[in-house]
Amino acid sequence: MIALLDKLYAQHDLTKEEIIFLLKNLDEEHKNVLFDYAHRTRMKYYGNKVFMRGLIEFSNICKQDCLYCGIRVSNKKVERYRLTPDEIIDCCKEGYRLGYRTFVLQSGEDFWYTEEKLINIVKNIKKLFSDVAVTLSIGERSLSVYEHLFKAGADRFLLRHETASKRLYEKLHPTMNYENRINCLKGLKEIGYQVGAGFMVGLPGQTAEDLAEDLYFLKELNPDMIGIGPFIPHSETPLRDADGGTVEDTLVMLAFVRLLVPDCLLPATTAMGTLHPKGRELALKVGANVVMPNLSPIGVRAKYELYENKICTGDEAAHCRQCIEKRINSAGFEVDMGRGDSLQSQKKA
Ligand code: 5AD
Ligand code: FES
Question: Does a structural domain hold residue 54?
């Protein structure tokens, strides 16, 4: 086992079979070796910096019906909201004042925000702040919309693949199509975005083989960013009675990803902070190097409920900014308020 971990550390590569073997046989001792190798790799590639992104959840209206998600169209209990373009810009202004230089605009798949509206929002942000990066996380659109938004100034796009297992993907996404998801990701990359993919850990029916598939898929796609979090069941979804993912299993996947895609940006996700009071700090210690504090207006925070008990729903943006810095420092790292471009994209530039 140690030989495989050493190979992973030295070459950043393993076969799918080797990954499956490790996932099935990792004991405490070897897990600690894995975590240590992941941390060293992070230090080698990115140092002790943690990049900050201001997250703006601008609409919880969604036409999709993902079985795990609290804002799926079938959930009639969630109170829906949309921020106007002006309200979105106001969030960015507040974020800029607090020092953020990346804004992540996230929403459900809400076509009220037409191509034209989105282009205007992106252009306005880029006109107001010449030194910020704009990240979109708005789900699936046509490649031509993606292209026009990129031309308007969007720098990055987050679209988790959710699971690389076609069987699982189709079970969990009754209104969506696996091939289309993958095509979106490949198209976004070709257009020139810094692309974020990623998956959930502990989905119902997810096996070690499925998780190895996720790791292998990411190795091949080689995205700039990789978002990984535990699945957390939501009581107003069909998966209400399922077991959720664990912090421990998610940490193992984060460490694997840091080792397999060493130059990627890896967020310590809010879902980790929700499952465990020190969840994000633990993630930072096994290779994660990004956090995404919330900039959404307090009044809508709780409504963007992908899963329940989400943290920070009552905290002002300024409070999160300070809270997270303390946490980062306590874990032994330092905040970096710069744009935080991926190493891959810096090499291309
Ligand atoms: N638990 C954990 N993560 C979830 N997401 C959506 N619903 C849940 C849930 N119940 C994740 C998806 C999505 C991201 C924004 O949030 O991976 O891509
Ligand atoms: Fe929001 Fe800690 S990050 S309160």
Answer: yes
pLDDT tier at 217, thresholds 50, 70, 90 = very high
Whose structure tokens read 């798949």? 109
Phi first, then psi: what are they for 329, rounded to 5°?
A: -65, -40
Shortest-distance ligand to the CA of residue 324: 2
Q: Decide: 291 in ligand 2 pocket, CB within 6 A.
A: no
89 occurs within a structural domain: yes
Asked whether residue 7 is assigned to any structural domain, the reply reads no
157 within some domain: yes
Number of residues that make up the chain: 349
Q: pLDDT digit string (tens) for 155-189?
A: 999 999 999 999 999 999 999 999 999 999 999 99
Kindly report the pTM of this predicted structure.
Answer: 0.98
Alpha helices in 52-195 (DSSP H): 85-97, 115-128, 143-152, 166-172, 178-191
Contacts (Cβ under 8 Å, ≥6 apart) of 213:
16, 163, 164, 165
Q: How far apart are CA 277 and CA 254, in angstroms?
A: 18
Residue 349 has pLDDT above 90, yes or no: no
Beta carbons within 8 Å of 170's beta carbon, 6+ residues apart: 178
Residue 49 sits in a domain of what CATH number?
Answer: 3.20.20.70
Ligand 2 within 6 A of CB of 263: no
Total number of domains constituting the chain: 1
Please identify, by atom number, the ligand 2 atom nearest to the C-alpha of residue 323. Answer: 2
Q: Which domain holds residue 315?
A: 35-348
- 19: closest CA among 40, 33, 4, 9? 4
Cβ within 8 Å of residue 240, ≥6 positions away: 233, 234
Nearest to 97 by CA among 121, 129, 124: 129
**What phi-psi label fits residue 152: left (phi over 0), alpha (psi between -120 and 50 degrees) or beta?**
alpha
Residue 294 CA, closest ligand 2 atom number = 1
Judge contact between 73 and 65, C-beta under 8 A. yes
Phi, psi of 250 (to 5 degrees): -70, -40
